[in-house]
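Reviewers of the previous submission asked for a worked example of the structure-prediction workflow described in the proposal, so we include one complete record here. The input consisted solely of the amino acid sequence. No template or homolog information was supplied to the procedure at any stage.
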Amino acid sequence: MMRWRATVGVAVAVLTMGCHKLDNDTGETAAVRIHVIGSAANSNSYQALEVPFWTEQLPRASHGTITVDLQSIQESGLKSPQIARLLSAGALDVAYGDFASIAGDVREFEGLDLAGVMTDMDTLHRAADAYKPVIDRLFNQQGVKLLGLFPYPGFAFYCTGKVASLADLRGKKVRVTVQSMADFMTAIGAVAVGMPFPDVVPALQTRVIDCAVTGTYSGNKAGWPEVTDSLYTLPIGSGLAFYGYSTRGWRELDEPVRQLIQTEFATLENAAWELTKKQTQIGINCNTGQGECAGGTPSDMTLYTPSADDIARAHEIARDVVVPNWTRRCSEKCVSDWNATVGKVAGIHAGPRT
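From that input alone, the workflow returned the following structure tokens.
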């Protein structure tokens, strides 16, 4: 299995951020200071959940044993692909990262959210819970302790011109985020285009692409409604992120501290899922100018909700194209684990690798 590797220069620069354990001779649990890199500073999750959790809830629950230095990823100066590698190297204590940036290294991570497999957020939540032991094992092999899984708001297609159905995507150039999404686009006759998030708005403005896929809420926050007309909410995916603790730092903590962090973090993870479910609808509201738009920017996009036939067709493409293509990129153990967890929840069985 490929191992995440941090570039030496970056790792050395961040090594000073390691966990500081304040030992004492009383036999009591030693105080610790933890350095945490969270998600984007402008995300609702960061402001509403992560900041109060790390700076208030966890220190309070530990009765002052734990103190936290928190930075957003922008403040850290790091890029998303660097996060997992620096955690693996022990150069970071705790950090938030996304699976899309590491799925090319460890193909099992793709299995969390294959395009078209999950048709709603509740099903994704059950699948993520089922798959979590697999992710935890893989993270341990990479020198990272998995703390929890965080979803992004449900994806939608932001398109120029009218796109009201799956058939309307045929021939369109569509910005995608992961390989399975590219496989899905190819299967319906669209042209998949890989593109960094910051490049999407100018690409839509200049018609380099016709559509782009991202979360209903995050797309609104990034100004995508200013350059698109149609919001087609086919449930092609959501995207998942993680919070991880470097194994090196985790082992340095006293057992009561580890137990406390895990117990308290479970409340943060549950709150993140509930917030994201709400944000998916709020994003739709903001993009269309209808209903509550807390934290977003009201716009006037036209909403197109997929028909039952479109949803059924998307699930067929996932079963017949996306999943088989992914199994060829993964190992037999990987496929077996997926069938027993995600596949079981989704009602899809991945056949033998061919």
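The longest strand covers residues 144-151. We consider this example representative of the routine output the project will generate in years two and three.
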